[in-house]
Amino acid sequence: MPNSSSRTANALASPWRIALSPTGNTGDAFFRGLMFSAALLVLIIVGAMILALAMKSKLSIAQFGFSFLTSRQWNPVKGEFGALPFIYGTVVSSAIALLIAVPLSLGIAVFLVEQAPYYIARPITSLVELLAAIPSVVYGLWGIFVLAPFLRVHVEPHFARWFGWLPLFQGSVTGIGLLTGGIILAIMVTPIITAVIRDVLAAVPDSQREAAFALGATKWETIRIVLVNGAPGIAGAIMLGLGRALGETMAVTMVIGNRPEISASLFAPSYTIASVIANEFTEATQDLYLSSLVELGLILFLVTFIVNGIARLLVWNVTRKSGATA
Amino acid sequence: MSIPRIITLALCVVALVPFVDCGGGGGSTSEVRLVGAGATFPNPLYQKWLSEFSKQHANVKMDYQSIGSGGGIKQIQAQTVDFGASDAPMTDAEMKGAPAELIHIPTVLGAVVITYNLQGIAKPLRFSPDVVADIFLGKIKKWDDARIKADNADVNLPAADITVVHRAESSGTSFVFTDYLAKVSAEWKAKVGADKAPQWPVGQGGKGNEGVTGQVKQQPNTIGYVELAYAVENKLPAAIIKNASGNFVEPSVDAVTAAAAGSAATTPDDLRVSITNAPGANAYPISSYTYILAYKDQKDAGKGKALVDFLWWGIHDGESFAKDLQYAPLPAEIVKRAETKMNSITSGGKPLR
Amino acid sequence: MTTALTRADRQRRVTNAVMTSFTALCTVFAVAILLIIFAYIAWQGIGSVNLRFLLDSPHPVGEGGGIGNAIIGTGVLLLLATLLGMPVGISVGVYLSEFGSGRFAVIVRFVVDTLTGIPSIVTGVFVYAIIVVPLKHFSASAGGVALALIMIPIVARTTEEMIKLVPHSLREGALALGAPQWRVTLGVVIPAAASGIATGAMLAVARVSGETAPLIFTAFGSRFFSYRLDEPIASLTVQIYNYAISPYDEWHAQAWAATLVLMFLILLINIVVRFFTRKKF
């Protein structure tokens, strides 16, 4: 590698100053330009998507305005549309999915990185990633033929008996409903979250672990330190899982009951934004109908934005307090 | 990057060249490629037709993909496919949305059956039209209701709640079923109406015919509506419905053809018609046509000829495959009228038949 | 000299035992679920997997047939999606981690996060509107673009996280040797994060290989063997979808069998990628 004196001088400066310096070598500028254009491309594409969604939903925004977000009516025949049942279904099913998947994934990832010997960890990692490859349609079919009957016969009656005083577990037990949708989403997002957290934890330098052990920490206390170290990465993993949960269509729509109603019970059928778009988009021939569906897509974007924002704030808070650096 | 890696990368790029063969050419010059999309209901039959037709016409390559009736209408309007397929005929508004005149060619008939899951009941149940409507309206809530018992005196009905299963998504099947309900129940017509995606008063939504089938099969005391083939292939019972003439008719391909034959007199010239609750002693009341949609003036003469040949073959030779797959063949009068329609398809002014 | 265990020590040991058993339990639970799902798919489908099934094209119901063209179609689509999506995704990830301190980067990161949450059908309809409708025909290239759009945020996000985890000492060492920034990133940082980036890539490939809705609107589906990019092309997921929603048991069995084949394909890709990105030291 040719070694000019200017480069040697630059090497002593921080990477950021080299990248931003106007006298940095052309290779740097070209490389940075390339990366920048990729990022710009993504922005343009998403911008185009949002623009397309906004333009197509002008009709229903004009017609319903803000009441679209609070109305519970979804009647294509009469031309009355409201988003609230779908927002409810999407948020609750994703919440259930994450509530189940995040602790599960953390547990699996920690086990695979910290505890399992190599000959167990490697195959199980590949196995978990394989779960991510199953088509949604197949998950949906498995849900109808295996999961829903199982829940209806062996799980939900017990919930109803022991926790039936909570409005969450009242109502008829059919196996098809919000709970089943949440559970199948949990199964679908676990591989993603697990795989990413596993890599994040594996990348934490061993020096951290060794230092903890040297101070007399138990295995679990060491793991805690590693987890805090990897907190931003773990947050990223959860975001990916959340993204999958919010946008998942086929599998959810086969087991969630597809009823645009808000009910306190988890056993009741429900409906998510992604499901209603998938179910009704190709058949929606009236303009207002189509526009309302597109507006639902726009609202999903918004929900994702808001949830992402909250999550980022939380992570920022945690890493700020603990002083961990990635 | 090392030299060997750069060479490998370059080889990979070069290997892609045969894939990017844009434009015409590729294959024999007389090969015709046709693409169609639409209703899921006739898909198995159309796949059979495509396969059989290509045995006799090797230079015609045709593909059909089920995306739903509405999808078929949208794609033919956008001209991304050469023909569309729909269970429900296009409305006037939809026909105006197409850039040129579209023709409806009926291909086969289908039946929507009421299916249910009740333990220990050997014979199919009988339903009167008003009972069906009130079950789906949520007014009849239990299986041992007096009105259900009235039609099934010798059946031991359980004292259980009825769980209604309907279609979650927009579908031609829902349209046919609600069209029938709107004809036999004034309350249904006023409250819900006939639509591909009505607001169901009660029940859970299953995705697709297979979703409803699955949910009915897996849950006891459910009732739902599916295409005949799904009930037969999954060994689910199909209810016997009282038709407009007052007879209880079992859903069968012959009863469906009878419904079409019974309505032939009132079928308009463009063949867009609803044949639910049709007149005729042996007519099954929840029957419907399924259509193929094609432009009257075909832009490409080669493709147009292939399409017309295919459709002609379909409504004549193709009908022989229908019954085995649980589809009802067209009655003779309708075949004649479809022939007239096909003779009117032109390309650049010249008829293609 | 022995010291008696204090109460705090006992508590720490108990917590340790509980938590380490919890993690083991989670893994057992997850493996159990995977095995249940896999066993169900295998039980339903294994009867239909034979050589003819793997080599033949689809036939009407009652005549057997196979998924040979769908396997090739999925291969073509995945290749196209990877070629389009991977460079962009990795570049965005590199940008966010190496140059990502400005406000522009914050916006990009946010946008990428949001992109992961878009239902795949919306992406499919978007690509349909910008590619299929103007050209008035469905094509494999449109399918590849749709899948690439789904892949990009996953790859970008994981690439960013993995690159951020590369210790600064590696970078500083390379810079101290006089390497320019771009050489450091390409030659040191990315290879160091290679296994993590590969995980992101594998997740993205696995995810898009299971997608159906976007392909129906773009690549369409076909009965024929084809590898041309300007024509509709078959794919395993669309074929599985077509079979699964039909009334016939024979086609259902083929759908399960095709799922087995798909999972095996992904496993193969996984093994190959892992082999090439294994840590060589």
What is the CATH first-level class name of the largest domain in chain C? Mainly Alpha
- The CATH superfamily of the largest domain in chain A is identified as MetI-like
User: In terms of per-residue confidence, which ranges of chain A show pLDDT below 50 for 5 or more consecutive residues?
Assistant: 1-5
Please, how many domains of chain C? 2
Q: Give unreliable regions of chain C as ranges.
A: none
User: Helices and strands of chain C: which structural class?
Assistant: mainly alpha
Secondary-structure topology with pairs:
The complex is a heterotrimer of chains A (326), B (353) and C (281).
Chain A: H1 5-11, H2 15-20, H3 26-56, H4 58-64, H5 67-70, E1 74-75, E2 80-81, H6 84-115, H7 118-131, H8 136-163, H9 178-203, H10 206-214, H11 219-229, H12 231-247, H13 250-255, H14 273-280, H15 287-322
Antiparallel strand pairs in A: 1-2
Helix pairs in contact in A: 3-15, 4-15, 6-9, 6-12, 7-9, 9-12, 10-11, 12-15, 14-15
Chain B: H1 3-15, E1 32-38, H2 43-56, E2 60-66, H3 69-78, E3 83-86, H4 92-96, E4 102-116, E5 126-127, H5 129-137, H6 146-151, E6 163-167, H7 172-184, H8 186-191, E7 204-206, H9 208-218, E8 222-227, H10 228-233, E9 240-242, E10 248-249, H11 253-263, E11 287-295, H12 301-316, H13 332-343, E12 346-347, E13 350-351
Parallel strand pairs in B: 1-2, 1-3, 5-9, 6-7, 6-8
Antiparallel strand pairs in B: 3-11, 4-8, 4-11, 9-10, 12-13
Helix pairs in contact in B: 12-13
Chain C: H1 7-45, H2 51-55, H3 68-98, H4 103-116, H5 120-135, H6 140-164, H7 168-176, H8 181-192, H9 194-209, H10 213-218, H11 236-244, H12 249-276
Can you give me a brief rundown of this structure?
The complex is a heterotrimer of chains A (326), B (353) and C (281). Chain A has 15 helices and two strands. In chain A, helix 12 packs antiparallel against helix 15.
Keywords summarizing the entry:
heterotrimer; B: 353 residues; alpha/beta; eight-stranded mixed sheet; three-stranded mixed sheet; 13 helices; 13 strands; C: 281 residues; mainly alpha; MetI-like fold; 2 domains; 12 helices; globular
